[in-house]
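Severity: low
Component: inverse-folding endpoint
Summary: output formatting inconsistent between runs
Steps to reproduce: submit the following structure tokens with default settings.
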């Protein structure tokens, strides 16, 4: 027993110090790589953006890369991002170099000492923790503006807030998502017999979610009353729906494939989540299910046509979490809108 415990301790120490060393190595490598680029291109502004997660935030903040390129046409834009979200940036023509974030420690080191002409940390203080050292990534600018984890939605939508804490221009425009032809062609090979409605039922934060049995009823009612295929997306489904017009694509699509299938759909129905930001970016009409989130009675994550509600309807449970939304309220809004938009032929 004692021997097993000793092995566990030394294994933990090995992983801890290896991770710290590799984080430092990656920081040094990045630091001198940028320095070398500046040496060979002294007239170019080298600009770093740190926004490593989550994917909805990265999509929402895409306009920042466009604005920086407009402001500094000859600049070299670097974006630091976690590996799972890199594909969101790979085809963005305004980003010149994508830097994979090795760890939160890597970003902490880069924040403390970086080689860029401009460096914009778009994360709030305290949200991202490096557990081996029990320290968190900090953002002094956000703290000086009093933009904190418990009040940030009081300062605007995600694009506005992250621009403020990053010291970047405040923008109102909608995000874009850049989807390559290979992804478009792959999704084109998926043939559906009817117009598609995409649903996304689960976020990475359960207080945002609606009841599972309501989702199941909604899916069945949509297929019963309207001439449509229902496509469920996300990481994993908890719905028990058995119907020839329902397709479960959870866990089967890449991020960009998910964006493309939303783009090809007539409508998007979901909770506040990354795929909702996709729907906003690709211009698909959205039904968004909302409720109270922590201390935020009313909040708006989106810019563009979702913020103005010209291309979306928000179905809100005032003063209570989204899980308390009544089914009838959701169904009435969605069914009435689908009828107005002529998706009315019964199956």
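Observed output (run 2 of 3):
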């Amino acid at each position: 027993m004692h021997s097993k415990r000793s092995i566990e301790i030394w294994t933990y120490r090995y992983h801890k110090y290896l991770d710290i060393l590799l984080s430092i190595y990656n920081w040094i490598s990045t630091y001198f790589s940028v320095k070398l680029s500046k040496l060979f291109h002294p007239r170019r502004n080298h600009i770093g953006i740190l926004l490593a997660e989550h994917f909805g935030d990265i999509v929402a903040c895409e306009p920042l890369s466009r604005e920086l390129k407009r402001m500094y046409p000859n600049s070299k834009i670097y974006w630091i991002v976690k590996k799972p979200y890199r594909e969101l940036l790979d085809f963005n023509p305004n980003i010149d170099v994508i830097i994979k974030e090795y760890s939160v420690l890597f970003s902490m080191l880069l924040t403390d000492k970086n080689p860029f002409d401009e460096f914009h940390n778009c994360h709030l203080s305290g949200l991202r923790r490096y557990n081996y050292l029990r320290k968190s990534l900090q953002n002094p600018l956000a703290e000086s503006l009093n933009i904190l984890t418990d009040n940030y939605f009081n300062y605007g939508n995600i694009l506005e807030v992250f621009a403020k804490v990053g010291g970047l221009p405040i923008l109102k425009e909608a995000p874009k998502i850049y989807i390559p032809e290979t992804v478009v062609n792959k999704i084109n090979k998926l043939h559906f017999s009817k117009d598609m409605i995409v649903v996304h039922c689960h976020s990475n934060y359960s207080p945002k979610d609606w009841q599972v049995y309501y989702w199941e009823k909604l899916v069945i009612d949509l297929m019963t009353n309207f001439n449509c295929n229902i496509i469920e997306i996300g990481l994993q489904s908890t719905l028990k729906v058995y119907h020839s017009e329902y397709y479960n694509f959870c866990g089967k699509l890449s991020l960009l494939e998910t964006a493309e299938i939303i783009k090809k759909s007539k409508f998007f129905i979901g909770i506040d989540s990354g795929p909702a930001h996709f729907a906003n970016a690709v211009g698909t009409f959205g039904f968004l299910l909302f409720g109270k989130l922590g201390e935020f009675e009313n909040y708006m994550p989106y810019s563009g046509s979702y913020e103005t509600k010209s291309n979306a309807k928000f179905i809100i449970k005032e003063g209570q979490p989204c899980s308390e939304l009544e089914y009838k309220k959701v169904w009435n809004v969605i069914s009435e809108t689908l009828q107005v938009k002529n998706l009315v032929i019964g199956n």
